[in-house]
Amino acid sequence: MDVKIASFLSEGLGHSSHLVDLGDGSALVIDPARLPTAQIDHATRVGLTLAYTADTHTHADYISGSPDLVAGGATFFAPVAAGLVHPHQGVADGDVLALGRYSLEVIATPGHTPDHLAFLFTDDSGPLALFSGGSLMVGTVGRTDLLGDDRREALARDLYEALRLRILTLPDDVVVYPTHGAGSFCSAPGGGERTTTIGRERTTNPILAAGSEDEFVDRLLSGFGSFPPYFRRLPKVNQQGVKHHATVPELARLDVADVDRLLRDEAAVVVDARDVLHFAAGHVPGSLSIELRPVFASWLGWLTALDQPVVFVLDDDQDERDLVRQALTVGHDNLAGRLAGGLDAWTAAGRVVEATEIVEPSTVNWPLLDIRQGDEFAAGHVPGAAHVELGALGETAVAVGPVATMCGKTERAMTGASILQRAGRGEVAVVRGGFTAWSAISGNIPETA
Predict the structure, then answer these.
(1) Are residues 341 and 368 in the same domain?
(2) pTM for this entry
(3) What CA–CA distance (Å, rounded) separates 394 from 178?
(4) How close are the terminal C-alpha atoms of the chain, in Å?
């Protein structure tokens, strides 16, 4: 395949977007996320004009960056059925778009969403690449329950038909570029690679190996785990559009009095994005620990309301632009600012701080609360540990009294501990290194469920 395709990975969201060189000095971007500066910078570096952008479906896991590219002059192709109210060109099954030296064929692939399309990139020699969005992925397919359990089976059957009749009929050597992949809550469990081929998926994909439609549906529906509640809101947000930012905005600098006012008058939440060890040593009482790392956006969106004002606590050496970009990508626009001077400013104002104890896995004698995802817990856990997923912890009655939270390492456990501390639920500690460290201790044999 001689077409040039550059892919851009957002590891924390399990999301890939793809930029296609159209051979005439222009380029097409598939499924960009909000603030697509990496794609813009790449195009500038290689001398391409971003003339087109396309979304395979109405996204639930992130805000689309296609409207950002429209602001720069690109034409936006989106499913007619998406009902977008901002500028775009609607496309539907059977449309063929002439783009530079190539053609883009539009294929209806409902299932992951009702409006889902796949884009087949072709030239005179035939099919070259399939941009499959959230339909066909590496070793799996898209989940069909994002619109509710009452529609998941019908959409699974739609997906079965679309894959069988429209996608798996393509030549084996067609390269597949999914949007969702490992780390995405939009996919059923699958492989860790980001691209595949039709032939490989035909022969190795365990869900596609089902012998009948009913078996396909049973395999697919049995693999779903939980997903962030903001997934229910973002399709409508993407349909209506959001504020455009030409660049990543800076956070306002807030003094302690500003933070007091926001907490008192606007029900703001303090999110401490510092290293968890720094949080453990001391933090603003009632703050939520979500360490800034690739999955920051998912947990911010999962654990705080998208319209709730957020005050951040950061260390001076942390990347504020990364934090803001991640927050905006999941639709968290109500960013009140950051505490100027960080925790030092809080203590200098005479305010008290709260600490969180960290215990070693070799000596922990606290009751254990494992807050990993259900599939992680089922694969292996400390015997006798209780289990509540982190995303459900704020809604679950956890007994007041000493408890040590555990995750795969330490970060999510600290988030869980901060939720319990905010709720006043007794003495809380965190197991350093989590289940990974506990499993490495000689003689420890995990239970499986």
Answers:
(1) no
(2) 0.94
(3) 33
(4) 45
Residues recorded for the chain: 449
CATH number of the structural domain spanning residue 293? 3.40.250.10
Distance (Å, whole) CA 217 – CA 144: 10
Structural domain for 149, as ranges: 5-239
Judge whether 449 lies within some domain. Answer: no
The dihedral through the CA atoms of 224, 228, 232, 238 has a sign that is negative
Q: Which of 348, 371, 403 is the last residue of a domain?
A: 348
The single-letter code of the amino acid at 185 is: F
Rounded distance between C-alpha atoms, residue 195 and residue 147, angstroms: 26
Read off the pLDDT of residues 154-170 as tens digits, 9 standing for 90 and up: 999 999 999 999 999 99
Asked if 216 and 258 sit in the same domain, the reply is: no
d(CA 79, CA 67): 14
The verdict on residue 448 lying in a domain is: no
How sure is the predictor about 449, in pLDDT bands with cuts at 50, 70 and 90?
confident
Co-location of 302 and 319 in the same domain: yes
Q: For residue 187, what are its two tokens?
A: 């996919």
Q: What is the DSSP string of 54-101?
A: E-SS--SSS-BSHHHHHHTT-EEEEEGGG---SS-EEE-TT-EEEETT
- Which segments within 179-331 are labelled E, that is strand? 196-197, 253-254, 269-272, 288-289, 310-313
CA distance 342 to 28: 42
User: Are residues 259 and 341 both part of a single domain?
Assistant: yes
